[in-house]
TrEMBL record:
Keywords: Cell membrane, Membrane, Protein transport, Translocation, Transmembrane, Transmembrane helix, Transport
Renumbered residue ranges of the record's region Disordered: 46-70
Cellular compartment(s): Cell membrane
GO biological process: protein transport by the Tat complex
Pfam families in alphabetical order: TatA_B_E (PF02416)
Entry GO terms, CC: TAT protein transport complex
GO molecular function annotations of the record: protein transmembrane transporter activity
Membrane topology classification: Single-pass membrane protein
Name used for this protein in its record: Sec-independent protein translocase protein TatA
Domain of life of the organism encoding this protein: Bacteria
Entry function: Part of the twin-arginine translocation (Tat) system that transports large folded proteins containing a characteristic twin-arginine motif in their signal peptide across membranes. TatA could form the protein-conducting channel of the Tat system.
Quaternary structure and interacting proteins, as annotated: The Tat system comprises two distinct complexes: a TatABC complex, containing multiple copies of TatA, TatB and TatC subunits, and a separate TatA complex, containing only TatA subunits. Substrates initially bind to the TatABC complex, which probably triggers association of the separate TatA complex to form the active translocon.
Coiled-coil stretches: none
Length: 70
């Protein structure tokens, strides 16, 4: 169904979205999307560094009551 949307169709959709939401709302929305992408990339990078870091030791999170049973 969406295979035959060409350049004129995409331009029409863009104009309708611009008229409905306005330029200010769209630009602020894109700014928020950019901030989200940046935060995601930062989180992935920090997570990768944490995994590669040898100083991170596994910790025992077993409750004290369960440790006595073993």
């Amino acid at each position: 169904m969406l295979n035959n949307i060409g350049l004129p169709g995409l331009l029409l959709i863009a104009v309708v979205v611009l008229v409905l939401f306005g330029r200010g709302k769209i630009s602020s929305l894109m700014g928020e999307v950019g901030k989200g992408i940046t935060a995601f990339k930062k989180g992935v990078k920090e997570g990768g560094q944490e995994i590669e870091d040898d100083s991170v030791q596994p910790r025992d999170v077993t409750p004290e009551a369960e440790k006595d049973k073993a």
